[in-house]
Amino acid sequence: MATVPLVLAMLTVGLLVLRESRDMADREIAGLEAQLISAKKAELKNYLSIARTAFGPIYGNALPNDEAAKRQVLQILAAMTYGTEGFFFVYDYDGKNLVSPRQTWLIEKNWAGLSDAEGTPVVDEFIRLARQGVGFHTYVWPKPSSGQSATMVSYVVGLQDWRWAIGTGVFIDDVLGSVAAARAETEARVQRTFLNIAAITLASVFLVFLSGLFLNLRERRLAEDKLKALTQRVFDTQEEERGRVARELHDSISQILVGVRYTFELARRRQATGDARASESLSSGIEHLNGAIQEVRRISRDLRPGVLDDLGLGPALKSMAEEFGKRTGIKVNYETNPFRNRLDQDSKIALFRIAQEALTNVERHSGATEVNMLVRGTKAGAILRVQDNGRGMNTTAAESAGLGLRNMAERMERLDGTLRILTTKSGMMIEAQVPLSHMLPPASKTPAPKTKASA
After folding, report:
1. Which of 17, 166, 309, 443 has the lowest tally of Cβ within 10 angstroms?
2. How far apart are CA 318 and CA 127, in angstroms?
3. 223 SS3 class
4. DSSP code string of 340-407
5. Is the pLDDT assigned to residue 176 strictly greater than 50?
6. Is residue 153 within 8 Å of residue 44, measured between CB atoms?
7. How far are the Cα atoms of 36, 38, 129, 135 from residue 155, in angstroms, in the given order?
8. Contact (CB, 8 A) for 295 and 252
9. How many contiguous H segments (helices) and E segments (strands) does the chain have?
10. Is the pLDDT of residue 449 over 60?
11. Which residues of 89-101 are buried (b: 16+ CB within 10 A; e: fewer)?
């Protein structure tokens, strides 16, 4: 697809160059043809001027009915030939041929109404030009030497006293041949130019194709590398979560259950010996067992809080903040406002996990004594802000919390949201914003059905 505009552009350029080249060539060839024919016409004028010089004194001193003078002029013109094809011809105004030395079969015959092979009047046009005084005429005429038809240009003058049309002509097939050769050469040059443009276009398309192939392979390799890195991060996250759960089970549940076991064993021994303190041991074991149950519930909430699905994001964050404060002794100030719209499921989970990860970082790295948590809806969507008064994030803390921060950023990226992280010596702030596209409209209230009145 990337080569289509290039091909279209080069094709347009080629067509424009082809048209402009042909137009320019046509103008040049037309100019050359006009120049060559002009030279031929000048040559004809020169020939006829020589002929008039030869018979001019006779015509000038003769009367209109001087037959002797007419015969003398006809003899002079019949003898005046040049080259292999050149001669002078004479027609009277009635169309009768009087002189045609190289085509004697025309002499003494009336050729009024004669036309060439293309239907162009010949003799009648000679007579018309002679009556006007002078003029050129182009027509097709058989060559005296070969008998083959060719284009001829004639120059005719009129002797009005004797009512004669005198002229001479020259074949311009050599001119037309030169023009045709020039036209063929120009056409070949234009075609070569177009082929060169086509070759350049193909080479450009090939280079673009190779570049695109290289970029596609490169992008695929980068995508595969990113996929491998993402897969590795997923594995690292899973292992970290498994390690955390394992530590929670070992450090809390396992220790509590071991204590419960020893307490119950002590209660059994005391009961066997009739010691009155057996009931105290049983009460202590039950208390420790209740603690284990609470720890299991806490771990379960950390893995997937039921309140998030049942009551929504606000109550789930509030419950997590209260539990965090009780467990760590860090004061948590929680603030929210009622959402007029509801977040979709993906956004609720993402914001909850970001808040959970932020509190975990506060507990492990910040050394803070107070945390402010804010969640509210805005005109642009929903925003979650967690800010502490700790020592900020140093290099060691950044390396330790790097995976968690990447998880936060990836969650926001999947939702087309934004994640801001600001850290100073006086604390750290994490702010996540979900766009309005993830806010669902409030559920419409279904009106109560009307009851029919009894008859």
Report:
1. 443
2. 118
3. helix
4. SSEE-HHHHHHHHHHHHHHHHHIIIII--SEEEEEEEEETTEEEEEEEE-S----HHHHHHHHHHHHH
5. yes
6. yes
7. 16, 12, 9, 6
8. yes
9. 10, 12
10. no
11. bbbbbebbbbbbe
Within 8 A by CB and 6+ apart from 226, the residues are none
CA distances from 60 to 46, 56, 66, 185, 403 (A): 20, 6, 11, 52, 121
Helix (H) or strand (E) holding 417: none
Which residues are 376's β-sheet partners?
383
Neighbours of 132 (CB within 10 A): 11
Mean pLDDT of 221-245: 78
Contact by Cβ (8 Å): 58, 164: no
Composition of the chain by helix, strand, coil, percent to 5: 60, 20, 20
| Neighbour count for residue 156 (Cβ, 10 Å) | 25
Backbone angles phi, psi at 84, to 5 degrees: -95, -20
Instruction: State pLDDT tens for residues 125-164.
Output: 999 999 999 999 999 999 888 888 889 999 999 999 999 9
Per-residue tokens: 347 = 């956004």
Quick check: 213 and 2 in contact, CB under 8 A?
Answer: no
Helix, coil or strand: residue 142: strand
Q: Smallest Cα–Cα separation from 349: which of 434, 230, 239, 418? A: 434
Give the span between the Cα atoms of 35 and 172, in whole angstroms: 12
Return the structure tokens found at 56: 């001019």
- As a dihedral over the C-alpha atoms of residue 205, residue 211, residue 215, residue 217, rounded to 10 degrees, the angle is 90
| Residues sharing a CB contact under 8 Å with residue 442, sequence separation 6 or more, in sequence order | 340, 341, 342
Residue of 106, 107, 155 lying closest to 132 (CA atoms): 155
Q: How many residues comprise the chain?
A: 455
Measured distance CA(291)–CA(275) in Å, rounded: 26
Average model confidence (pLDDT) for the chain? 82
Quick one: tokens of 375?
Answer: 């969640």
Amino acid at 441: P
Contact 126, 156 (CB under 8 A): yes
Does this model's pTM top 0.85? My answer is no
Locate all alpha helices (DSSP H) within 65-172, ordered by sequence: 67-79, 123-132
Q: Which of 301, 307, 407, 390 is nearest to 354 (CA)?
A: 407
Candidates 331, 309, 310, 311; CA nearest to 321 is 331
d(CA 124, CA 346): 100
Residues 6+ apart with CB under 8 A from 314: 336, 338, 339, 375
Question: Is 39:65 a contact under the CB 8 Å cutoff?
Answer: no
Per-range mean pLDDT, top range of 169-178, 193-202, 327-336? 327-336
* Token digits of residue 289: 């067992």
